[in-house]
Amino acid sequence: MPTTPAPVISHPAPTAAAPAPSAELSLEERLAFINAAMTVRLDEAALAYEVNTAHIPTEPVDLGDVVTVPLTPALQPPTPYPTPVAAILQRAYRRLLTGGWCSGALVDEDGARCMLGAIRIEARGDGGLEAGAAAVLLDAIRRKFGEGVDSVPSFNDAHRSGRVPMRMLDQAADLADTRGL
Fold this sequence. Notes:
The protein has helices at about 25-55, 65, 85-100, 115-125, 125-145, 150-155, 165-180.
């Protein structure tokens, strides 16, 4: 049986040398290239994060729940509202801010008050102003939380902290002032 010779593979010799770098990059050019590369990587990471977390339901954060500032002598109460109902609501807000908030009672053993308790003490026995302030407060609450809110005490007692009830007193004071009450 005749044998066929194995094919010979020849490699051509390189005709030209690899191109040499024309010049070394300056520091500014290297930093610009690294900045561009990092920007691309950060954009890819941000896109991956958005894709990976798109299925997670979230609720918007109200900054009033996050940002709190203690009442210090430098932060004196603002100028009182000129209208009587707005002034009562503003004073009730300040009373809760400085004296404490409670739920389940008009006044607890430590002297903290609920929303209605703060309005009652600031109305100083004027039942008409107290009723007007409570009505504006309930209206402000219903504007924000819907018509399902039965009363100011039930809204107050539905919360575990005083942040939301106190914010609603402040908003009700603005609403009363806008209405001229």
